[in-house]
Amino acid sequence: MTETLLEVRDIVVDYPVKGFRKPPFRALGGVSLEVGPGECVGLVGESGSGKTTLGRAVLGLAPVTSGSITYRGREISRLRHRERRALAADLQVVFQDPYTSLNPSLTIEQILTEPLIARKTDKQLARRRVRELLDAVHLPSDAGNRLPREFSGGQRQRVAIARALALDPKLIVCDEPVSALDLSTQARVLDLFKEIQARTGVAYLFVSHDLDVVRYLSHRVAVMYRGEIVEWGPASQVTVRPEHPYTQRLFLAAPVADPAKQEQRRAERHRLLALQREQDEQMEINA
Amino acid sequence: MLRFVLRRLASGVVLIVVITAATFFLLHASGGNIARRILGQEATEDTVVQKTHELGLDRPVASQFGDWLSHAIHGDFGASWFTSQPVSEAITSRLQVTLELVIGATLVSGIVAVALGVLAATRRGWVDRLVQLLSVLGFAVPNFLVALALVTVFAIQLEVFKPTGYTSLSDDPAAWLSTVTLPIIALSIGSIAGVAQQIRGSMIDALDRDYVRTLRSRGLPEWRVVYKHVLRNAGGPGLAMLAVQFVGLLGGAVIIEQIFAIPGLGQVSVGATSQGDVPLVMGLVLASAVVVVAVNLVVDLLQGFLNPKVRLS
Amino acid sequence: MTSLWRRLLRNPTGIGSLIFLVLVVLSAVFAPLLAPHDPNTASAYDTLSGPSATYWLGNDGSGHDVLSRLLFATRLSVTLTGETLVIAAVLGIVAGLLAGYYGKFFEAVGAAGTSLLQALPAIVVLLAAKSVLGPSDFAAMAVFGVLIAPAFYRVVYSAVSAVRGELYVDAARVSGLSDPRIIGRHVLTVVRAPAIVLAANIAGISVAISAGLDFLGLGDPAIPSWGGMLNDGFTNIFTQPLLVLWPSLAIGLTCIAFALLGNALRDELERVDAAPKRRRRATPATTVTVAPAAVITHDEAPEKPGTDLLVVQHLSVGYGSADGSVKTVVEDVTLTVRRGEVHGLIGESGSGKTQTAFSILRLLPSGGRLVGGSITFEGRDLANLSEKQMTALRGKKIAYVPQEPMSNLDPSFTVGSQLVEPMRLHLGLSKSDAKARALDLLARVGIPNPGRTYAAYPHEVSGGMAQRVLIAGAISCDPDLLIADEPTTALDVTVQAEVLDLLRDLQRERQMGMLLVTHNFGVVADLCDRVSVMQSGRIVETGPVRAIFAGPRHAYTRSLFEAILPDAEARGALPGITSSGTLGEGVTA
């Protein structure tokens, strides 16, 4: 087995709740997973499942109450500002909303050089790097002088990906990077993610609510429900023959783009729900 | 709900204590020989020392404030150093006059501002631009200039209203109206402008919300959508603005009363200030603070009525 | 920022007020050169004399030259305003930046300080301060600077705390930028503009306040001031009314100039912001670029005969722009919804599908209107109905289910009252009958505890529940046509499946016609009988769902189908990763 890149062990994240002596909100209740080099780990779940919080905890943007996150064996969940900044070269992010993740008043070049100036890169070098990055995400090389609002959602997401690639990271946390995009754009951006991974060997922690997207891109998949991972394994198993009742429900809930197949899936779903309800009742009786 | 009121009340009391303490310490830290100022240049050094002792000015400031506070809690705010008139007596009757002006101006501004704001937000176009321009001008021109203009035109040239003086409402309602109309108008212009702009802005904001389309899709008539739903949602920021304006009106009244020679708090304030009459200044600060805290409490309650999120949290 | 300046100079009120203010400052600076007389030399023979060749604006009550005093008083006003602004801006902006960016402790201190400073009317505080500090205007206006600082604080604080939550600030953090760098790059830029607008307004207020204090006779009588001159004029208003005029003009015009400048700045700023910074669903995104071509129509399978409920023919929707031209977002759209049939309208963002739906309800966003075609519903052309007739149809005959459940309920009213209102209006029900019917409806749409939801406010129910409430509201008056605009897009997958089931059941049970706007082929496959594919404001292909899914003919439709991710193909484990199939904690299977 190759070395593990990122290892998350029993991570708990509590958010304080406004109001006197209110118990904090537990966004993550003891979650564990790992990401190997060059691997794509999909994190799927519905809203409130804690999938985004897990991504943010890895990036140091969410407060970790307990548990550990190690990157190449080094504990990173409680780093000081300065140490966290040093990690920027290895750990990067692509956010969901390409409209708010780029500062509207900065040019594309200014946005892309942001990680570079943090490292005090020479200006000449930085400019050359910007051209390389634009090329890597298939944007025209003259895009640097323009503002984000001149680009479509898909193009902006390419800029965000280029920014994440600027320092040649080993792991990119992708927080729903294609859910704000149109169908056809979505497919092209997903292919770009695959292409970049094949070329650079970067690993992804890919957060999404869409089982289809996760299945398409991930080697391994974790399914989250109410702050916990309920199923974890190879994509070929979790997203095709799910074992956990929640994953099964999730799997059958997404409508297929085929009237006949969808009718079947709907019937299957109704059968599953009836069965699970029966089991729940049985369990209650037993208990 | 009761807890909400109690909490607000408690924080109001804390605020009042902090403000009076700060004022008290500043007034006493200012130095200067107060006893000498009261007695005049001719007084001997001995009588000055005696007066200083009599007023308790030779004791530590903190214990002086402690005395003042404990007396104040029992309703004794001391007496003016210069006229020996009890502070509560000097303030109460005048506070009533000032409150008549300020509350009158608040009501006028509330009503006119809602009308203008709704009109501008629903009509848009030139109506909107006109209301906006008037608001900018009304907000910009200081109220004492408005007052001077009103006096010159309506009282001196046209002689429609009395230029100066005050008749109490219980004595003669018609004369009262004649004496307070111009001051209230002068006070209101600025706050009408401020509140109308706020209402206009939050109305336009609310009209753009998704739920307005949904309400229209249910076949509700437009007036119902605007006045029942949109105005209620836009009312909160407007009310908050009115509360801010109220505090401003209380200050504005000081100058306006001076112009119209109305015996309100303004006259006492100016006199007490220029003399350095500490007990009277303290009384004035306390009175203003209590009024402001009370108004904010009322506004909070109204906000709770308008917005269920405030009420239930 | 430079462009803001340039645009301000092109704005007539902006340039006008700016020129006036520059003149005011210049006359303050050059007052000693400009003033014809010494401002403090009184000519005892000329008290209260009117304008003359020697004394252009006359003399005041003590015999000073009014023009000279006015010029020197300008000096005072300008310095006092500058002083107030600097104190207020430095204090407010620094505090706002700290509280907005770091939150917590600074936020609490800021909030406490603000409420303390704003608990008293400024004039009262200034009067109290005067009794301590003496007649100096500079000391008093320094205090005023502190008092007004919360205005800057609030503007800066709200701008910064809004930015702090922006994803691009998170991205900058992940990029390794230090806090001062982030503030300089991302935060200050946002604060700059509103702070300048505010500064203009505060300058106006401080001119008024300092004049007010001097007018009350609390200023330093040795220094000429606008307020002091006003006081002198007011004392002599019966003998020499002109004396009030000059200081009034000086004060009034300066205040107005500042206010107009602030307003012009804000207008120009809003114009920048109005540029498409964020895509909004309601506004059309693209113009029509597709060359008009014949719509590909698949043959009707005679499986579901029904009468036409809604016939849209050659519908065009346009938005008027400032230059008078009309931008078309929907062009030549023709479609039919039959009774008891679900017609799907599918397309990507900006395709005009939502605009088509809104135009049928005649609820287009402001600026939008029908520019051509007809919308025939039960024999009447909706395009020609009066607003009143249309209002009577909405809710009763044609109902609407929106996309975002949480933003489509009025937050100030209970769920129940929003359900009852249209029923009382359209069906003439009594209060209690309407309530009973509303409770039935809530139960029908699958809400577990109708009584509780009825009494709840929108923010107390979940998104899935809110969407059920909206569906209940839409069907409450038994409409014939339901227009559903992406009714499941904002919902989680499992909730989406339940809501789709609900919509299908209700539609069958009530034999409603339904126009379903969506971007999801899965939803179309699940619910629709027929589908029209929209691209850039036009329908490119239409027909029965099964026919189109089996053989899409238009290139665009085909490209959409190709973009759907393959259903069964999964990416296997990465070679070298062996820990396959380990189950996480909490796994019960």
Automatic annotation (TrEMBL), chain A:
This is ABC transporter ATP-binding protein. InterPro entries: AAA+_ATPase, ABC_transp_ATP-bind, ABC_transporter-like_ATP-bd, ABC_transporter-like_CS, Oligopep_ABC_C, P-loop_NTPase. Keywords: ATP-binding, Nucleotide-binding, Transport. The keyword ATP-binding applies. Signal peptide: none annotated. Residues 6-251 form the ABC transporter domain. One of its GO terms (molecular function) is ATP hydrolysis activity. It comes from Paractinoplanes toevensis. The keyword Nucleotide-binding applies. One of its GO terms (biological process) is transmembrane transport.
Automatic annotation (TrEMBL), chain C:
One of its GO terms (cellular component) is plasma membrane. InterPro entries: AAA+_ATPase (IPR003593), ABC_Ni/Peptide_Import (IPR050388), ABC_transporter-like_ATP-bd (IPR003439), ABC_transporter-like_CS (IPR017871), MetI-like (IPR000515), MetI-like_sf (IPR035906), OppC_N (IPR025966), P-loop_NTPase (IPR027417). Residues 74-262 form the ABC transmembrane type-1 domain. It is a multi-pass membrane protein; Peripheral membrane protein. Residues 312-561 form the ABC transporter domain. The chain crosses the membrane at residues 12-35, 84-102, 109-132, 138-157, 195-218, 238-261. This is Dipeptide/oligopeptide/nickel ABC transporter ATP-binding protein. The lineage of its organism: Bacteria, Bacillati, Actinomycetota, Actinomycetes, Micromonosporales.
